[in-house]
Amino acid sequence: MISPQPFLSPEKLARHGTRQCGNEIVVDYEKEAKHVSITARKQPHLSAMADVAPVVLNDEILEWPKNDKRRFLHVVYRVGDLDRSIKFYTEAFGMTLLRKKDVPKDKYSSAVLGFGQEESTFVVELIHSTSILYQRYYGVENYDIGTGFGHFGISTTDIYQLVETIRAKGGKITQEAGAAEGTTAVVAFVQDLDGYEFELFQRDATPEPLCQVMFHVVDLDRSIEFYEKALGMNHIVTIDRPEEKDTIAMLGYGDDPNQIAILELIYNYDVTEYTKGNAYSHIAISTDDVYKSAEVVKLVTLELGGKIIRQPGPFPGTNTKFTAFEDPEGWKTVLIDNQDFLKGLEE
Q1: For residue 209, which of 58, 123, 254, 321 sits 20 to 30 Å off, Cα-Cα?
Q2: 199 is an active site residue
């Protein structure tokens, strides 16, 4: 795995008021350059782990996630009307419907859509509950996205055309496409029919058009350390934005956010609590050994918090091995066996 490098694309640098200076990211504000340091700002939070004796992790154990074969497989979230969302995602975003299934026994339907095939690209999996009791309690179209989830990211070679297509298909434009202040980089923000927000990026063609998942955290330092240790992610960059009263961090499996899918974590100054709602579910990530990966996660949760919520093993009714866990702030991740995942696509 590539060692963490402070790299950021020119458009992101400009958007966040920063610039590249050799191998360092520099934030420009109040006409004074200040080097970014995640530890430079204390975050006011109460950690449940504060009084627990520190857990010392063996470096050899932590090497497994860094050397494992991992990538973002899919991100899962709920929608109020599956057919309506399929129509919007294909016609507005330009995604392809890769597969759809109904699971009457478990009272849900799902659809997988993306800009490429599941074997090699990051895709979305939309879930719709067909449970009458669930619909009566929550309402068919009333999933709560919560205040903790942020947005997804899509890169496109023609952002202006994409915005107009989304508008024509009923999507909401929350920020029109345009150049960020002081740069030629172009971004926009839109919402789908369920209220999920997407940030659009004007870029050259990329292997991962679905390029980002962003959510809020209360303890950014701890979250970065968790995703580095438990999942072997590369900490690409951290940017402090005093004018926005927040700090963001980007992590992923690689070092160029223009070429890979990114997990973006954001910490808002003085915010100590977020709601997660019942809409967003989780990110699925590949692994060559579910059992070994789960053991690493278990050890890291003893040090940093979080918990295993599904012990490693085959998914009921299939041979696909997986494990599921929550990070210290309750965000869920599912690790899926690489070979089992690919075999499942062939069936």
Answers
A1: 321
A2: yes
